[in-house]
Write a structure and sequence with these properties.
By secondary structure, the protein is mostly helical. It is built from four helices and no strands.
């Protein structure tokens, strides 16, 4: 439960309460307008409580996700402690992106076979303007 009392979670709790209160107040306002004769307000009177329910649903799902999450990081990326439940072993591991140096295909002096085939295909399409891509002989 201590994870739910961080500054970020306190802001989420406050936002949830403000949004739900505001949406329900707007729903009540639409009910009073609909009772005064504005027929389209009946639709809005139903929508605002649905919006409030959605906010509660997302908030509750995030609370459950946070409470179910690991309390301490694993020993290494992708490693699961021996005492962890089996379900934790099937969860995908999210790692930081790694910067990889790219080597140009033209650096070795040869032309890429796939690139040459694609360029040949494009040249054929240009030479045969009425042809369909399925007519390509290659």
């Amino acid at each position: 439960m201590r994870r739910l009392w961080t500054p970020a979670w306190i802001a989420r709790h406050v936002a949830m309460v403000v949004l739900v209160t505001g949406f329900l107040a707007l729903g009540w306002w639409q009910v009073s307008r609909a009772a005064a004769g504005n027929a389209i307000s009946w639709g809005y009177a139903v929508e605002w409580p649905i919006f409030a329910g959605f906010v509660v649903f997302v908030w509750w799902r995030e609370v459950r996700h946070t409470l179910r999450g690991p309390t301490a990081p694993a020993d290494g990326p992708g490693e699961v402690p021996a005492d962890a439940p089996q379900a934790a072993a099937t969860r995908p591991v999210v790692r930081r992106p790694v910067r990889v140096a790219r080597v140009s295909a033209a650096a070795d002096g040869g032309e890429d076979g796939d690139l040459a085939a694609y360029n040949h295909y494009l040249q054929w399409l240009n030479d045969n303007p009425g042809a369909k891509p399925g007519d390509y002989p290659g």
